[in-house]
């Protein structure tokens, strides 16, 4: 999955830049040679040349993954705007077994309106026409069994009475670029006089593709790598590039 993701990003964006992926949560958190171990190197060598591809065209697809899906992975179209049958959401019963409570249920977060406005307008200057963002409302959500829901898009209401819309994931990372406080879009947003509250949060990350804590639990339950990949990327096939 990691190799496929790098290949996809490299092919799509890397031709005119001197690097392929960022070593941050924007792409892959790679900490260099010091983070490698004998086991990780063995995994790389054992899967040498293997990538995941779509069954229809045989092309590599963006094999997204995040830390904790909290019970159901998300359709890629709802988060990134791209549509792949291999990136449709699946019910994940696995991650709840081994995830730290603070990741599965994250603590309520409060941001003052000044910070929220500064961060959003810095990333999306075209929204200056809103004046001050006074209210943020969930505009569209995906809802799953067990009480899990994610905000797909939000409505921003400004002091000028103008409104605008943002994807939920774009809002989350605009306000909190680290993604460590507003850990996911599975939460409720409350607009107060001087603050915005993000409460009842679940999961960690965008929720698309493979749930890493879920994959770990599946491995502990003796599921094979192929079984794990088939579960989180339904319909994929493995291709040998070299």
Molecular structure report:
The chain is an alpha+beta fold and 242 residues long. The protein has 8 helices and 12 strands. Strands 4-9-8 form a 3-stranded antiparallel β-sheet. The chain is globular. The model has no long low-confidence stretch (mean pLDDT 94).
Determine Rg (CA atoms, Å).
Answer: 19 Å
What characterizes the major β-sheet? 3 strands, antiparallel
Q: Beta fraction of the residues? A: 15-25%
Low-confidence stretches: none
**Count of alpha and pi helical runs:** 8
- Taking the alpha carbons of the first and last residues, their distance comes to 16 Å
Query: How many extended strands?
Result: 12
**Kindly state the mean pLDDT as a whole number?**
94
Widest sheet: strand ordering: 4-9-8
> What portion of residues is helical?
25-40%
Category by helix and strand content: alpha+beta
Give the overall form. globular
Order of helices and strands: HHEEHHEEHEEEHEEEEHHE
Task: Please outline what is shown here.
This protein is of the alpha+beta class. The chain is built from 8 helices and 12 strands.
Highlighted features:
242 residues; 27% helix; globular; single chain
